[in-house]
Amino acid sequence: MIRTQLAPPRRDPARVLPGDGVEIRPARMDDGERLRRFLGGLSLHTQTLRFFTGVGRPAESLVRTMLAVDERRDVLLAVCGDAVVGHAMSFRGGESDVEIAVVVTDDWQGRGLGSRLVRRLLRRAAAGGARTVGMDVLGGNRKVLAMIRREWPEAAVRAASGTVEVSAMINPA
């Protein structure tokens, strides 16, 4: 499963909300330096919630992997000005139709940006035929686990080695 960290849902997933200046768009290969700065600026706590470990100075291979888009992978970025403030990716081929991972920079957490990324990513996955979503969540990530209970009360959850494996139906609405 792909690991995830995101903020609880609050707002409509509009492309840019008035006043927040955030655009959610597909990743491009020329986003490498922006993504490297984003990853390097995450707190150790946020890095651990997303990657289950600190990443320190992000390796080039990690940056390339997080930007790679192909028939099995999709990547969205939340961009404010020239700065990446959120990253969401999906992968086809796990136990669910699509597995997701999301991370939002510390300053933007709690504003619903992670939820906007998830909704957009899942709409794109559903358009490609995905019906189920899976994610791994660190057991101590109470915000995300609460969001999952609200958004997917019927989700199957299983604790395993300090993580919670989640599987749910995608609601493409």
Automatic annotation (TrEMBL):
Transmembrane segments: none annotated. InterPro entries: Acyl_CoA_acyltransferase, GNAT_dom. Residues 22-173 form the N-acetyltransferase domain. It holds the Pfam family Acetyltransf_1. GO terms for molecular function: acyltransferase activity, transferring groups other than amino-acyl groups. It comes from the Bacteria. This is N-acetyltransferase domain-containing protein.
